[in-house]
UniProtKB/TrEMBL annotation:
<feature type="signal peptide">
    <location>
        <begin position="1"/>
        <end position="22"/>
    </location>
</feature>
<keyword id="KW-0614">Plasmid</keyword>
<protein>
    <recommendedName>
        <fullName>Lipoprotein</fullName>
    </recommendedName>
</protein>
<keyword id="KW-0732">Signal</keyword>
Amino acid sequence: MRSRLSRSLAIAGLAIAGAACSGQPTGPEFPPPASVVAALPDSAAAAYRHDAVALAVRELRRVGPPAAQPIEVPADLVESLYRSLAAVYAATSLPARDSVVTLYRIHAFGESQQLIVIADDPLPRWADALAHGVLHTGDASIDALVARYGLTLDQRYALTTGLMVTLGATRPTNMAALATRFASIAGVRAAEPNGSGGDGDDIRAEPSSGGWRLEYSVGYGDCPAGCISRHYWTFDVDGAARVTYRGSRGDPAPVGRF
């Protein structure tokens, strides 16, 4: 599994370094990576940046169980995925691009940059501090994690037996891996990513020939219980931000939901 992650990181490096050092196509469909990113409107840039983090976290999960995964998400991996998503956005001459970008507005599903921590009752001192909105709790283990990973105190809720807090991240973080660190601290009853239930539209990424294969999908039919039907569009993006449409498959694309 580690070799798969190494391959992903190597692709990220090639995608960025190669784009910087080699000659780039200049046609409107295949602009150089920097121009691709600069062309994104702010709203789209924020959404695809979130998608890139989600896809990068999924790559880290290939290493093994959460306790074995890296907590910090490599910036080069996020940037490589972000530029690939931006390249598809910019490939306006491809009709399938309009389906995934404009018609269905597909983004990655269900990945959170928040962590839920539930404290035991009676509250330990660190939990009492969090209950009063104090992030620097005086507990060495809690404070070290907060400082190292740039965590924020987003929400706090008093429970009938204990306390629940939601911690946020100021930089890309693998919350499932971080949860294992919190779970080992005295007084923590449970720690887990603040994820989404059900199912929905999604983007998947696979390393492919020095770049990424991006598979966009739209799900429909009882998605709160797990979408019954799904239609897919597949694009290959190389390190120079060249986009190749590989076709679609699956159930018929839904009509009337846009």
